[in-house]
Amino acid sequence: MAAAAHYVEVNAPAQACYDWWRPLTRLPELFSDVQSVEALDGDGTRTRWKVSGPAGSTVEWEARIVEDAPPRTIAWTTVDDADPDVRNSGVVRFEDKGGSRTGVEISLEYRPPAGKLGEAVASLLADPQKKVERAAEQFRTVIEAR
């Protein structure tokens, strides 16, 4: 399983940061590979993810929020009945730094599907660390523009 994490401080209160992340449906704004994150229930606890794969393919899975502690933490993972070859989990932590500043740590883990498609997806996602770093910087830009 590949993993990546990045920490950034932003000029925004922790609650505003948490509120931006909590639907998870905004993640395509941060991760260019993520086509969509669709809420499958009323509170957005269960979601369907669509991620761009090689040669125009799409990899899909369902995830659920497993920890929701406003305004400190949001964590999600693929659901147990999802394709066992596709695993994804993440956690975002928000630390109030005072004076409307917040430390934001984004941590992601994934295991691409097995087989030929899996190899292609793995090469597509070859540098998850850079993707998480870009996402963190993009989040800073978005939240500070509010």
Write structural notes for this entry.
- It is a single chain.
- By secondary structure, this protein is α+β, with helices and mostly antiparallel strands.
- The chain has one domain (2-144): Alpha-D-Glucose-1,6-Bisphosphate, Chain A, domain 4 (2-Layer Sandwich), CATH 3.30.530.
- It has helices spanning 14-21, 115-124, 128-144; strands at residues 2-10, 34-39, 46-52, 58-69, 73-78, 87-98, 101-111.
- Strands 1-7-6-5-4-3-2 form a seven-stranded antiparallel beta sheet, covered by helices on one side.
- A hairpin with a 3-residue loop joins strand 4 and strand 5 (73-78).
- The radius of gyration is 15 Å and the shape is globular.
- It starts with a strand and ends with a helix.
- The mean pLDDT is 89.
